[in-house]
Amino acid sequence: MSKFTHLHVHSHYSLLDGLSKISELVARAKQMGMESLALTDHGVMYGAIEFYNSCLEAGIKPIIGVEAYIAPRSLADKSGKVDSDYFHLTLLAANDKGYKNLLKLTTIAHIDGYYYKPRIDLNVLRQHSSGLIALSGCQRGELARAVMNKSDAEIKEVLKKYLDIFGAENFYIEIQRNSLPAEALAKAGRVQDAAEQKLSQKLIALARANNLKIVATADCHYIYPNDAEAQDVLLCIGTARITSDSNRMDMRGYDLSLKTGDEMLERFQDIPESVSNTAEVASRCDLKILTGQRYFPKVEVPAGKTIAEYLRELTYEKALPLYGKNGQIPPEIQERIDYELNIIIKTGFDTYILMVADVVEGAHKLGAITNTRGSAAGSIVGRILGITNVDPLYYELPFERFYFSNQIERIR
User: Fold this and answer.
1) Alpha carbon distance 51, 39 (integer Å)
2) Who contacts 3 (Cβ-Cβ below 8 Å, separation ≥6)?
3) Which residue in 161, 168, 93 sits closest to 122, CA to CA?
4) What is the CA radius of gyration of the chain?
5) Which residues pair with 87 in a beta bridge?
6) Model confidence over 124-174: pLDDT tens digits?
7) Nearest to 76 by CA among 46, 103, 108
8) How far is CA 111 from CA 61, 117, 177, 366, 400, in A?
9) Coil, strand, or helix at residue 297?
C-alpha cells in the first residue's frame, strides 16, 4: 500500500454535490488502510467535528479543511456574472491557529461575502492565513485557469499572489487525473477531457520551474465508482436540470471516488512524488480539538475587573430599578441575588451568563422580542440582566432547578 493521504474530499455537507456520509467515508478509508484523511467541503465546515470524532474512533488522523470559494474581485463586489464566477482553493488546517482561521474565514464568507456561494477574497485570506496549508485547487482554481488561458507574465503574477500569502513552504501545486479511461468513456458515449491532462502537465512544469512541491488529489465526491450516477442526480437537483439534458454540468466522465493509494500511484506513476507528498502534508497537520467540553466566547469587561466582579457589579446596578426601595435593595432580595451569584461564579457560569445577557440585549436593540423557556425563569440574576421577563420571586420559582438543569446538560 502506497503512503497516500486524500487531501481533497467532499462529504454530503457539500450540499447537492458531495454524496458520501461521513461515517461511511471514514469506514471505507479505514478499510483501505488509510492512516489519515482530509475533509474539504465546499465553502463550509458543517461536518468538521463529526468527521474529527469519527476519524479518531477509527484510528485515522483527521485533517480539517475546506474548499474555499475565492471572489474574482473582492468579497464586497456582488454584480452579475463577473462576481459569480469564483475560484476554488483547497485549504487545510495545520494546527489550532489554522483551524480557528478556517472558522473565521468561513464565517466571513457567509456573513460578508455570500453571493451565490459563501466567498472570501485574497485580502481577507491574507489576514487569516496563519496555520494554513494551501493546495492550488482543481480546474476551477485561479492558478489552473491562468495556466490554461493566460500569458506567462499573468501566470507568474497569479502564482506570486498566493506565494506572498502562504509562502512557498505552505503552498502546494495540486494536480488531478480523474478522467475515466477512453474505452469506458466511449462505451458511455462520452469524450475524454483532454484539458485535464494538459493542465496536469502545465502545472507540473510550473511547479518544477518555481521549485514548488506537487500533490496529487482525487477530488472525491463519493466513495465507490458506481456511486457516480447517484451523485449526478444530486448535481441535477442543485443546478435545476434533469439527467437527460445535454447541455449541463455532468461529472460522469470522471471517477471522483475514494481511491486506494495504489490506484493513485498508478495514475501518477510518471510523478510518484506527487503521491508521497500527500503523506508529507498529512504529517504537517497536527490539530487537536478538545471535544466534550464547553467553550464560552471571551466577554469584554472593564479594565481591572474580573468576569466575576463585573457580573456582580452589573447585577446590582440593574437590580435597583427593578427591586430597589429608597435607593436600596431589600435584604431578602439581596440575599437571593448573592446566593445565586455565589453559585454562578463558583461553578464557572459567570462568563456564560454575561454572554447570554449580551446576546439578549443585542436582540432587544434590534427590536426582537425575547424570553426564556423552562428553568431559566427561576433565576433572579437572569431577570435582572434581561435574560428572562419572568420574576422568580413573584412566582416563587426556585433557582436550584435552573442550576441543576444546567449541571445535567454539562454531564451529558
Assistant:
1) 7
2) 35, 261, 275, 276, 279
3) 161
4) 27
5) 70
6) 999 999 999 999 999 999 999 999 999 999 999 999 999 999 999 999 999
7) 108
8) 31, 11, 35, 17, 39
9) coil
- Give the CA distances from residue 337 to residues 214, 319, 340, 359, 360, in Å, rounded to whole numbers and listed in that order: 63, 9, 5, 21, 20
Number of Cβ within a 10 Å radius of residue 161:
14
Q: What is the DSSP letter of 307?
A: H
Provide the terminal-to-terminal Cα distance of the chain, rounded to the nearest Å. Answer: 41
- 3-state DSSP call for residue 161? helix
Alpha-carbon span 9 to 65, nearest angstrom: 9
Amino acid at 396: E
Within its chain, how far is the Cα of 169 from the centroid? Answer: 23
| Cα dihedral 230, 267, 59, 94 in deg (nearest 10) | -100
| CB proximity list for 219: less than 8 A, separation 6 or greater | 8, 10, 138, 176, 178, 254, 256
Q: Is 148 helix (H, G, I), strand (E, B) or coil?
A: helix
- 143, 193, 216 from 200: Cα distances, Å: 12, 12, 10
CA separation for the pair 314, 386 (Å, rounded): 12
- Residue whose cell numbers read 421577563: 389
**pTM, 2 dp:** 0.82
Using alpha carbons, list the distances in angstroms from residue 280 to 142, 217, 309. Answer: 24, 14, 49
2 phi/psi in degrees, rounded to 5: -70, 145
- Residue bearing the bigger pLDDT, 364 or 401: 364
